[in-house]
Amino acid sequence: MTSTSKFVSQIQPHHGQVMRNVFSEEIRQKLRTKLDVMPSSDTWYGDIYKKAIYGPMVFRDKEMNIESTVEKLLPGYRILADLYLEKTPEDDGFPFHTDFDSNGFMERPEEMITLWIPLTPVNEVGSGQLSIVNQEGAISLSMIRVANQLHPQTIPRREGFVMSYQEQSYLEHSKFTPALDAGDALVFCNAFFHKSEPVVPGTPGLENNKRAAYILRCVPKDAKFSRTRLLALKSLGQNLNVVNELLAQNYPDAVDPPKSDQDRSEF
Q: With b meaning 16 or more CB within 10 Å and e meaning fewer, what string describes 189-213?
């Protein structure tokens, strides 16, 4: 998928690209084996998915060599974080959203790239596909939202996931929903609105009426990280493993000091 919009191309060179056979069957099986035994994370994802693991960091497993795979796909980028989501017919999934709310670590958060990799086929309606919107108006809206988060005193107030009927209709009309085999990847910019489509029992390709997706967040190797946004995400309890690592690397004075023995005895 490509775009002729100069505005879109200036934001990010990846406009909903589909990359085929990113993970082999062997890697997919190793991922499922590792992720199946991990408990669901205690975050707000738990209200939306029965199983959601926020930041398992399995991409660091040297045996699977995921970091090297991504390096070849996206030269100049590195993996920052990962996420695992299982979706069943009972899970609503996210409505249209951007990833600024939980992954806006950077000075330029629109430079983050997401690789959404299904571990089960999502090539049929009802298989839990991912839809994205590659339109100038939608990206402009996402940038207004992040500006509101950073400068609420100068931007008209807009709540996180709340949008008007007209905006919702526009996104639905403009969405792109690719058919992906297990191990393919949908690669898109952090600023793009996207949402998960329903899982319908009996859809071909579903395993036990469940869609599984492994998600990677990638950033330029020279990315600069925002102290303000890191501390804001920390206060929300989002992506804590990654947030704390980035604070320690970039703003060590903002890292919480270790608790003393006396502090620990009070719990």
A: bbbbbbbbbbbeeebebbeeebbbb
The conformation of residue 197, written as its DSSP 8-state character, comes to P
Q: Give the tens place of pLDDT for each residue, 229-255.
A: 888 878 877 778 888 888 999 999 988
Q: What CA–CA distances, in Å, run from 56 to 27, 138, 175, 256?
A: 16, 31, 30, 22
Considering the domain 6-253, what is its CATH architecture? Sandwich (2.60)
Is residue 80 within 8 A of residue 122, CB to CB? The reply is no
Residue 202's nearest CA partner among 193, 194, 210 is 210
Q: Per-residue pLDDT tens for 191-222? A: 888 999 999 999 988 888 999 999 999 999 99
Q: Where are the domains of the chain?
A: 6-253
